[in-house]
Amino acid sequence: MNRVRHFSLSAALLRLGLVSGVLVSLGLTAQMAAAQSMAVPAYFYPGLFWNQLDQAGSGVGVAVMNPSSGPGTGPDPQYLGAVRSAEAAGITVVGYVYTSYGSRSLAAVESDVNNYYSWYPGLGGIFFDEASTDCGDEAYYATLNSYVKTKGGTALTILNPGTQTNQCYEPAADILLTFEGSYSQYVNSYSPPPWVANYPASHFWHVVYATSTTSAMATAVQLSKARNAGYVYVTSATLPNPYAVLPSGGYWSNELAAIAAPPTALGGGGSPTAAPHPAAAGPVADTVDRLARHTETFPQTWR
After folding, report:
1. Going by C-beta distance under 8 Å and a sequence separation of 6 or more, which residues neighbour residue 255?
2. Interatomic CA distance for residues 303 and 274, integer angstroms
3. What is the pLDDT of residues 25-42, one digit of tens each?
4. Residue range 33-265, CATH number
5. Model's pTM, two decimal places?
6. Which residues of the chain are in CATH 3.20.20.80 domains?
7. How many angstroms separate the CA atoms of 160 and 151, rounded?
8. In angstroms, how far is CA 37 from the centroid of its own chain?
9. Rounded distance between C-alpha atoms, residue 111 and residue 285, angstroms
């Protein structure tokens, strides 16, 4: 990937021989997501919120439909209309299927897949929830991935272990949801493993809930770009179900704009008016903050 090179924080750290360790300590990869799209757990009934997705233009790339913790007992005309409208708006709709961390039978999972494709023509793929992270279960998910591909069309596959997974799962799906948690967790305790930087950003999705302000949302989106996530969803909604609604008003429009914006270097690419540096703690963070403030005065001649 072509990267804009700024003589800013990362350059100063490199001169000190610290860049690798500092980036790892902040959970930032050497590769940044150059292009990003919103992927939404759309766990709400067709209506106002599905219409909001359709009206987002090219900002929303993927939506997960979930009629009843799976396809339910039969086709729902309202969902059929929602799938058709979303697909017409350029959104890939995938169906929710749980896997019980690899313990649910393949026959039961494949039956759900069959029902989705039979009841909702135009469906774009399957979202496999409760995915295992044990490499011993990778063959189970590889089988499901191949099964979805036989359905034709987009046949997008997503694995959601709800946490970081192992590299053995890289070939088992098109997208790995490698973070699902609160804003506090995302900023203060999440760090992607080094292997993530070896793959395209389009392979990874981060979901961040309990992000209460527009400013915090912008920080989360920027962090997701730095952490090589090609898909992201940030919401102010909280547990027990942060996916029952969509963000609204300025939060929603600002999130779409933040996702569409190109990534910036740490510290805003040397701009003194850029967003604040992500919060961190400890001596390394103190060093980063001091260097960031210092390097923001350097001329941006390294492009």
Report:
1. 38, 217, 221, 234, 247
2. 18
3. 444 444 566 689 999 999
4. 3.20.20.80
5. 0.78
6. 33-265
7. 21
8. 8
9. 50
